[in-house]
Structure formats: C-alpha cells, structure tokens
Amino acid sequence: MSWRGRSRLREFIQSFTAFWHEFFRFKSGVVGLVITIVLVIMAIGAPFFVSEEAYRNWDNPSYWDTYPHAVPPAWIGYVTGERYAPQTEVVKDIPPLPTQIVSFSFLYNCTYDHPPSDVIFLIESTHRNFSCSLKLRVERPDGEEIVVLHRKYDGGLLRILFSTDEDIRKSVWEWAQKYEDPETVSKILANPEMLSFIDIPHIVFMKKGYGMLFERTGVLEGTYVFNITMIFSEIPTPPPGFHVRAVFTGAAYGLMGTDARGRDLAVGIVFGSRLALIIGLLTAVLSTVVGVLYGIVSAYLGGWRDELLQRIQETVSSIPVLPLLIILAFVMRPTVWILALLLVVFGWVGPVKTVRSIAYQIKEETYVEAARAVGCSSRRIIAKYISPQILPYMFALIALGVPGAILTEAGISFLLGVEGVSEPTWGRILHDAQAAGATMAGMWWWVLIPGFMITLSGLAFVLIGNALDRILNPMLKR
Amino acid sequence: MRALWRYLLFRTLNAAIVLVIVMLVSATLFNDMMEKIVRAEIDEIVKQQVKTIAQQQQLNETQIRELREELRQTYYHQYGLDKPKWYRILYNSWRILTFNLGRATSMTSSSGTHEVSDIIVEAIPNTVLLFTTGTVISLLIGLFCGLYAARNPGLFFDRFISIFAMVTYTLPMWWTGMLFIYLFAYKLGILPSGGIHSIPPPKEPFAYFTDLLWHLTLPLATLVFVSFGSFAYVVRNIVLGTFQQDFVMAARAKGMPERHVVYKHVLRAASPPIVTMMLFGLLGSLSGAIITEAVFDWPGMGRLYWIAVEMNDVPVLLGLTFVFTFIYLIATVVVDLIYGLLDPRVRIGLMAGGK
Fold first, then answer.
1. CA angle at A72 for the pair A71 and A78, rounded to the nearest 5°
2. B120 in contact with A at a CB cutoff of 8 Å?
3. I need a surface site. Which of A338, A360, B95, B112 has the fewest CB within 10 A?
C-alpha cells in the first residue's frame, strides 16, 4: 500500500472512530442497532434456527397434517401454570405375521390439564394383497372402552384423524350421550349443527359426567390404551408388515405456536425476517440514492431545469401510493424483488426536498465557487465537492426510509395475502389470521408475534435513523 | 389575488394529470381481465337472445350459428372489442374518468344493484365518519400533549411523548386494531368486534345512534391511539423551535407573563407550520385507514378493497382506485391551498404576484 493510501486509511479509521464515539452517546440508537443485529442474525441464520424444508412446504397442507392446529406456544405452561400436552409421536413397526388377527396397541399417559389437540394414526402396509376389517378401541383409565372406529382396510396408507373423521365423531358422540346431561343431549339432537363445535379428540380425554361435551368435567388423568385390531378373512400370502405412526399432537407447540392449519409459526416468522429486511433495506437504499442524486442535481442546475425537476417530483409525490400498489400487486403478483422496485418507483421522492435545500446551501459555499472558477466540470463539482458533504447524511435517510417500506409491504401482504404466490411474509401471516378470525377465537400468538416483529424492525431503524440524523445532518451542524 | 388563482389552477392541473396517469396505469393493468369479463357478459347475452329468436323463428343449426356470430360481432363492435388494444385502454380510462364506473361482476350494493358507483357511494359516508372524527380527536389530543411537552422540555412527560411517538409511528394501524379487538372485544367483551351496527339495527333513532357510537368506539380508539403521538411530537418540535426565537426572548425580557408569551407570541408564530404538518399527516394516514377498516369490518371503502380482492371483482377495484385517488387529490389541493394561505412567506409571495 502506498504512503498516500495508508494515510487515507488512517484518516478513515479516525473519522470512523469519532463517529462511533458520538453514536454511542445516543442510547436509543444503540438499542436500535442491537435489535437490528439480532434481526440480521435471525435472517441470515434462519435455516439453522428452523427447518428450511418446513418453510418450503408452507403452502403444502399435507406437510402440516401431523402438527397440532391452532395451539399456543409451548412456553405457555410457564405463564399460566397449567400443564399442556406436548407433541408426542410413537412409531411402531409390526413385523409380518401369518395369523388371521393382527393386533397392537399404543399407550398414552395423559397427566395434563390440556389434553392432546388431536390423535392421529398413520398406518402403512408393506403389501396391498389383502382386505381386512380394522377396529380401533380406546381403553380409558376409568375402565371405559370406546370402539371409535370400525372400517375396511385394503392396505396402503390409512390416515385416521380423530379431529375430522366422521365415524370417530359419531361413535364418540354416541358414547358420550350415555353420561351427558339428557337435557343437553336433546338440545344438541334438536340442533345437529351444534355437534360441529364439539372437539371430539378432547372428549375422549374428559371425565364422564354432565357437561363433558363442553369439557367442563376436567381431564381424566391416567394411562390410555389405543388398541388397533385387524381381522383378515383369510391369511394373506405373503403376510404384510405394518409401519404405524401414532401422533398425539400437542396442546401447545414450538416457540410461537401454530396457525389454524397446523403451520409452525416460528418457521414463517423467522424466515419472514429475511423478506422484511430485504424489502426494507433494498427499497430504502435504492430510493434514497435516487432521491439524493435527484435533489443534488436539481439544486446544482438551478433555474428552469430545477423548476421542472421540482414539478415532476411534486407530481409523483402526490400520487396516492397505496391504492396503486394494491392493484399493481393484485394484477402482477410480484415477487419480493419486484415489489421492492415498485416501492422505489413511488418512494424516491421522499428525501428530494431536504437534500435539495442542503445542496443549495453547499452550492453557495466559497470553495464550490472557487472550484467553478478554476474550471471544474459540473460532474466533478457534484461528485467531489457537493456529494461528499451530503453522503454521510444519506445513511440517516436510508435508515429512516426502512420502516415505511416494511410497513407498506406488510400492509399490502395483509390486504392481498394470496397463498402459493408470495412467500410467507409477516403481513401474510396476519392476513391468514384475520381471514381465520384469530382475534375473536382468542389465538393471540397468531396475531401478536408477527405484528410485534413488524413494529420491532421498524422501530429499530427509526431509532438508528434518528441518532444518525442528529450526528450527520449538515443542517443541524451549522 | 390573481396569483393565488393561478397557484390554485396550477395545483388543480397537477392533480388532474396525476388522476389521468393513475387511471391510464390501472386501465392498462386491468385491460386483459376486463376484456375477459366483458366477453363473458356478451356471450351470456347472445346466448339468451339466440335462444328466444330461434324459438320464435324455428331456425336450423347453421342459421343459429350465423345468428350467434352476427350478434356477437355487433356487441363486440358496440363495446369496442374489435378495436386495437390502445384504443380500448383509452376508452376504458375515459369511461371511468367520466364517472361511468360500470357493473360489478359479483358484488352487490345493499339495495341489490350491481352498479359499481352504487356500491362505492354507499361506502364513502362510513369512511368519512370514522376517519374525520378520528383525525379531529387525535389532532386535539396531539395539540394539547405537544404544547404541554414543549412547555416542560426534558421532563418525564416530554420524554414519554417522544418515545410514544416513535413507537406508534412504526405501529401498523390495522395490527393495533387486531390487538384492540382481542383485548376489548374478546378478552374483556365490553365492545363489539366489528361492523357499524348491531344485527338487526335498532329501529328507534336514539338507540340507533348510541348503537352506532358503541360500534364506532373501538376503530376510533385505534385510529387515535396510533396517530396522536406523531402529531404531539411534531407540535412539540415546532413550538420548541419557536421558543428559541429572538422575539420570544424579547417578549420575556419585557417581563411579559409566560402565559401571554405562549399563547400570543409562540402559538401565533408556530400555528402555520403546525396546521400544515397536521394536514399532511392527515393525508398520510388516509391510506392506513383503508386497511384498518377491513380489520373492523367497517363498511367503508377500505373493506370494499378487501372484499373486491377476495371476490376478484375487477370493476369494483378499478372504480375504488379512481374514487380513492379522486378524493385524495381533492384533499391534496385543499391542503396545498391552506398551506399557501397560512404561511406568510408563501402568502405574501402569492399576493405580490411572485411565483
């Protein structure tokens, strides 16, 4: 490195340390910086924190089959002091047996205030050369036995979901009728649609008695046995083996809970930070660069050209951005990158006025006049004499431009959150929450966390931007 | 005065240009979708007509086919579908710019018509009701808090307002609405979660009015909560800046009572920028209100956007874009005019016949 280069480097380091010292005086700026660093770590390290495969399958409903639907985060137990059933999965491989009856059972020890939200059996046979009748019985700790399912099974993959299976619904309801208040039963029989509000997998774990259909009797604790019996009309050759997965989905799940389709919200939210940061930063950087250059050029040129540029800027800035963005996004279904560019098309006008007035002052300085007198070209004056004065301030403008971009993107995703087209952004998660009526169903985690992330990331950049503005704004320095 | 008129004319012209640009862009974007809708409509009409004519005149297969083709061409001609693309885009833009908004594909107004203008017109008053009351209340609270903070700079309240303004600035209004619904409608159950009145609405006028107020409370509270902080912060900064002016020092040096200084000198000098800042803030929050309405199921223009998107109703979307842009631009011109009249520098410049 040449002598000159080294001294320049030293100069740069010196001014950088000076800036740093000043920045650290602003507590709020430091807080903003820390939040931003956390967000950046979250965005870059997303695949390390949550499963990338789950993220790619966000819009694939069958991927989320065995996840609990609409349950709060797993740490909820520490807050409420109640016991929530965790997600439990048991896998059994039944070897091929040349018998007429194949029978196996799963034990589930329920010692929770909130029983599993669903019970799922996935049975897969090695061959499809048979036909049998399959019976699923539940033996409860109080000695009750419910035959919940009796069905023909011809091999292949069989999925049994307690929450949605009509036969299970019917048999559990018939069993519960024996112990429920006759008045309630007749009321439900008169209004069969009331049945759809009853949570069947939960009733299986309830104590018998009046009010059990509405889960007022409390959970019956103890060991439950789920028996599956297959009876073949004739012994198949070769005898099939079975691979059985029993899933007792949690009453609470993960760090951030799940949505109504069972999607792990932590996945969407952690990966959502990438999109929010990309949109926010890309939009802010591009629109600030364009806007600052526009402002400097406008001020430097002056006269009728300045006038014309200002009129153009005013025209663009009086366009109502949101309705136009809504229809643009509606028709084009843009990717994240295109959306950021669209935001730049309307966003570059933001810093123009401020920058122009600063550039006007600098233009009148004697050293600029001197440069002009010496015969410097316009491009050189703008690049070497005016821009360096404004350049540091650009960082403040960029930081202050990020929240607007993040908020606008979130708003558009919220309004148009169409699945399968865009990635799961925070705004889209909130769209799904709104469409599913999450607020009035009490699913606070689905609403609170994504919105909190939007606010937090916006706030971080406002804090940084305000601190930078105080340090770097040439108008405040004078 | 002449200069003022010229200024106003220029602003109006500017607004008109923006309106035309926005409509051209939207008509271009929606052209293919609109065309598909019109073609489907024509096919439907032609089918009906061919059926009746064929029954009356006992036509055979080829005659029916010819008749169908002939009718279709007439309608295509009538709707301009045989013209080049640019012509249709211009035609559509012109149609909408002359307030001929067409028919919705699937949405209906409460009176049952399919006219887009009916659907939008009945939504406008609801938006105006929620939005103007909300803005007026937040302006008043903002003014009061900002003044108080500026008179006691550095104290707890002043710091609180600054932080509060920063946080609420990054708070999406619609998300705050969702939180408020969760808190007040779901948890506490003291306020309705959405809608503009109970179902069925009470018949008696007084009961109807209180019912409306009851439903208005939550969206209004959201709007005020999110916007008054920024207003207060702006007022605080402007007033604080005015306090440092020389004429205030002079007034104090004269021994003028502090209350006099604040209300007669500082506020008078600070009011033009305060009013204009607030007016521009008002314009800015108009967009936020659009999405918030969808959250509260408030039957205004914002909720129409939500429904039109869900139902894929392109004519309604196009009409909404036009009406919203139109209202927004009128508001911009009014704000600019008020700005011109209030700011002495601008006003005198205008009166003197300058630019």
1. 135
2. no
3. B112
